[in-house]
Every structure is written in structure tokens, then in C-alpha cells.
Hints:
A: mainly alpha, 14 helices
Amino acid sequence: MSADPYATAAGLVERSAAAYAAAVPEHPADDGFFGPASVTWRVTTDLSAPVAGLRSLLMQALHPLAMAGVDQHSNWRLDPVGRLAATSAYEATVTFGDRASASRVAQQVQKIHTRVRGTDTVTGQPYAASDPALLLWVHVALVDSALAASRLFGASLPDAGADAYVAEMRIAAELLGVPREIIPASAAALDEYVARVRPELQCTPAAAESMSYLLDPPGLDEDIAELWQDIRDAAIIALPGWARELYGYPDPGPLTAGRRTEIRQTLGVLDALFMGEPGVLEARQRLTLRMRSAGKA
Amino acid sequence: MRVRTRGLAIAAVAGGVSIAALTLLRGQGGRLGGTRNGRGRLGGTRNGRGRLRVQRGLATLRLAARGGARYASHAPRLFTSAGEHRQQLRNDLALQTAEDVASTLGAMKGVLMKLGQMASYVDNGLAPAARRTLSRLQDSVPPMSPELAAQVVTEELGLPPEQAFATWDPEPIAAASIGQVHRAITHDGRAVAVKVQYPGIAETIEADLGNVGLLRRMLKISAPQQDVDALLAELRERITEELDYNREARNQQLFARFYDGHPTINVPAVVAELSTRRVITSDLADGARFAELATWSQAERDLAAETIYRFVFRSLYQAHAFNGDPHPGNYLFHGGGRVTFLDFGLVKHYSTEELRPLVAMVKHLCVENDPEAFRRAMEDAGFLMPGAPLPTDMIVEHMALFYDTVRERGPRTMTGDYASAVTRRFFDFRSPLAEYVQIPRSYVVLQRINLGLFALLGELSATADWRCIAEEIWPFIQGPPCTPMGAAEAAWRMRKSAASSQERSA
């Protein structure tokens, strides 16, 4: 834990929006690694995406070595919003960018990863960010979270959409150096993998600290702060029960239809705010047009 | 005018609720929610509170937050209003299915868009960034594809549009409130405009309006005397009404009948048998848009302004109805002062009892010059807390600005500066009156209109003897015509009453 005061989370929407708008290409050389007809594009453009993002951070942080890497090497305390915006930009570029752009940003991240190594003070184990096992956990946490958030709060996926999404997303892990053969290729394989890793997971002090920051970020613009409470609740609802227990969050009980609607409404307001930021509407329209024409083809 | 002025005035006075209404729609501040963990800048002194209220307003929409400008200090530039941009319909992005509609307008977005539209008439003071945001929200709604629009028409009229009409233009000509407008020709040869509502939108918006908690947070106003619930109720009622095209058709027909034969006011007649809850068919009108009017001669602009002015106050005082949307996109101009009025989705009806204190206020202030009676009328109307520890002359001085154009005879030019001053005073939370005034729910809509009307007329730099025109219309005077248009209108009224007495005797 750091004794340093945290930077505030002001500007979260603006900076994420700017990152997003810049990451959606205007003149892509090709359809990238997924393409407009992919399930990945549907899942990523779904209203539930912010919940997926937050749940995914909550899951990722439960791996002590993954968390240690962030804790010991990242500047998140100094610039939490910048860190989140950089992550969004990365994900958006890999998803929507052409192949060259996606490969380029992945190489940049790999380069950074080579410097991220050390020893976790909780488990005493050494870690390296380029370790495929850690990268795979981070990947699976993201894919699993997108599915969970979309199932609870998103538009329904087509039949076999979940399997297709898991299979499509393998390339994202590969881009960071995970061997294809160890990446889950179906929803069932994803579940198995999570069950296998589960005994290693725990809520370290670093995880508790960073996640409590994230769930209630100080200095968040007040309008967003109100909405964030619902997003946070949604992410916690979407967590597996055992993950909630590790964090010590109370069981939220079953998700009622009314509560689901409320959360979707909050997501809609957040989305409208996001769309009000420069370039976001245009980026959305670029994606919509490409998805439409892919749908007709 | 007077009357109208009075409405405004009231509004102004009413710093309280109405402000809430407006503010909330237009607000400068980037705050969505209320106090949170005591972090909210809610509390504070009375002076401070007012400012906060404003800042908080349309926070949700980030209306003004970014610009940081104090809206009231901006010159009123009426509209490059949000809605106008939608004229560029993005057909390439057209919504093809009801699911597309739901993902575009569901989850609160339709409600936000409606709030944005309601606010757009007062966007004169908005910071440029705020205006852009509002406009973007509306831009984000593409038209329906021809197939989807046809599907709605088929469901509503029981026949596909090519059969329900002799000719049907599948490409929409304009965006409309939660719908779009198509041209068509009926089987008996009438050229009509057919407004078609997005499918499923009524249900979605109704459900979203049910989330009072989120709406309250979005609209949160700190001052205890401001009745957020009343305000919300008013907004919900207005939006719900607007979703019901049957109601709009009835209102439009009411106005069309009332103004039938009027020398300068045209309201397109509704074709009842081709109108339903989600489709309205009315006579097609063609004319110059507001932006074009702005390029016409000053004489033409004055005439158009006079017609709009007469329409607003004649409707209120004689038909007891207010058409609530002074958006410049809702007029077509034909020259010689002839104006077509479009869009009757926001009509408010008043009872004689509801209008009485408004009439009394204008009468006491502008005609009888009786400050104490004026004050009592304000209290009767519910604008001013009875027994407020304020000297009457202070109240009168504050309110007089709103009646400025009708206090004395003689030609006056509506200016942007005047509209701006009215806006500033309306939102002057530092005024000692702010504590003791509020706007009763049923008058909230009047404030919107008033602010919009002044800005509209100011944009035209319209000159007239507004007092004299107002005297023609004020029910306690019903003065003789003072302009050629007034004379033509008087003749129309004579014909109208002759016709109705003939009907009675028949």
C-alpha cells in the first residue's frame, strides 16, 4: 500500500472517450483480427461494456502475481484515469483497429511487459508480466467478464455466440505472446480454466486497495460518481459468488428484473454522456456502418 | 404579449421550481447526481445555492459543464437549435428493426433526448460545448429505414403505406419528435405530411420515465423550496402526452378549427381517418424555414413576429391553450406575415380559474398600476409566498422587466439584449426574491414558452407596438385593432362569431 495520496479520478469519461474515438479507425487498411461480422464487435459495442470492464479488473486483481505486477510497476495511483484510458485504448485498437495497428500496440505492450518483473511480497513468488500463465489469466478474466456482463445486462447474443466469442478472442491473447494451444476456445473450456486457477486466487492487500479505489474513486466527477454506484453494483452482481467472498462483498441477492432495468438505464445515461464527448458519436457511426454492411453481405 | 410577458415574469419571479425546470434542462453544471458522501456542493448559503442549482442543471447531459461559461451572460442566439441539425437525416445509418430503435433510444436515451429537445428552446445562453452536446444527442438518432417506417404505418393503418395512400414517399423529409415525416397523397388527392413514430419508443420511454430515482438524481435540485417531484411530474406528463399522437392530433385539430379562416395563421388540418396513436396525417404545408426568414426584409420579419405573437396570446387568452414549443423549426413562413404552425405535441390547456391570476397580474401591473394588487395576484397564483418579508416595490421592480414590452404604448424592438436580460433575471438566484418565489406546476410550461418566444422575436429584431397588440387580446380590454393585421383579425373574429351564432340559431 502506498502512503502517497491518490490522484483523483476526474476526467474519466473525457479521457476514456478520447482514447476510444482515436482507437476506432477512420480508414482501416483491413478489418483487423475480428471484423465487423464478429461476435467480438457485438459484445464490445454492447451497452454492458463498462460493467464488463470493471468486473474484469476485479477478476484480474485476484491473481496475486498479476496484481503484484500492477502494484509494483504501474503508476496507477498517480494517474488512475490515464491508466484506465490507456487500457481502453489498447482494447479498442486490438478489437477495431486494422491488423497493423493491433499488432503495433500489442508489440508495445509486450515491450513494456519485459520490464515488469519482480517478487510478490504476499506469496513470495517471482513473477514476470510476460509469463504466458499470467497473461492467460488476464485474458480469461476479460473474456469471462464480457460474457457475464452481457448475459446479465446486455442485448442477447445469437445461439452459440458465447462459444464464438471465446474462440474469436484467442487472437487477443496470442498477440501478447500466449501460445494458442493453451487458450480456451469455448465457453466450457473457459469455465474449466477459471476453476483450475481458482485455488491460486486471493485478495491481497494490493488487490483490496486498488479495487476499493476503483469501486469508489475519489474525485470522480460528481455526475459520473452517481452513475458509478450502479456500475459498481452491477460489476459485483456479475462476479462469481466465490470472488465476492474473496473480496468480502456482501451477497447482492438475485438480480430482479427491476434492478436489471435500472442498471441498464444507468448504463444508457453513461453512454449518452460518453457520446457527448468529441469524436465518440462519429466513431460509433463508423462501427455501425461497417457492422451493417457486414450483416448484409 | 403582455400576457406572455407576464408568464415570463412569473417565471422569473419564480426562481424556484421553474428554475428547476429550466435549469435542469439547460444547466451549466456537470453534475448528475445529488449529494454524494457529502461531497456534493449542495449546501451552502442562499447565494451559493442558486449558483449551484444552475450548475447542476442538465448535468446529465453535460450541457454546460465543460464550457464553464455562465449561460446567462451569453448573448441570446436563439437557435442553431439542436433539432435543426437533424434535418440532415443519416439514411445510411437508418434504423432497420425495432431492436435498432431500442438500442438507440432505450435505456434512458430517448428520455434524455426528449429532455434535450425541451431544453433546446432555451439554449440561447448555453455554452457552445453544451449546445454541441445536446445537438449530438439528437444527431445520434438516425431515421427509420423505409421498410421499418412502412411497417409502423401498416400496423397502425391496417394497410401498407402504398395502399393506405395513393402515393407514398418512402424517404422521410424531416425528423420529428420521436418520429419522422413522410410525404404522401391521399386517395382523394390531398397532399399530406405523415408523421410516423418509432416503434416501441412509447413503451421504452414510459418505462424509463418510471425510474424516478435516476431522474431525480439527474434533475436534482438542492433548494428545499424547489419541488423536484412536481417538476418531474410535469416533465413526465408532457413527455407522455407527446408520445400519444392521438392527443397531438386532437390538439392540432383544435387549433386548426380555432384558427380556421384566420388571415395570417395557418394550422394544417388533420386527416382523422389516417391518424392513430403512432401516425398523424395532416395537410402538407410548404414554406420558408426560420433561417430563411432571417434573411428577409425587416418588414417581413416584423409581420411574421406579429403573427407569432398574436398566435401565442390569442391561443392562451381565448382558446385557453398554449402550444408549448417555440422551436423555430416549428414554423413555416409564407410572406406577408402568414405563418404555418407545426407540431402540437406539447399543448397545455388552462381553465379560466388557472388563467385568472395571470390576467390579474398583468392588469394590476400594466394597466391599473396597483403594486399591492399585483403582489396579491402573484400570491394568488402561487408564485409568491404569502407574507414574504419583502417590500412590494422591490417585487415590482424585479418583475417589471418581464412586462417591459407591454407597460407602455409605442413601438418597441425586441432585441437579443432584452431576451438576454430576461433570461438573466429569470435565473438570478441571488435576488432576494429567489427565496420566496416558485412556479406552480401548471405554469411551468409557460416559462419555457416565454423564454423561447422572447428569444425568437429578439432573433428577428422585431418591432411593433406590442402593448397595443396586447390590448387587442387582453380579455379585460379587448381593444380595437391597432395594425392592419389586427384589423384583418378583427374581421375574421366577426365572421367567426357570426358563423357560430348562425349555427346556434340553425
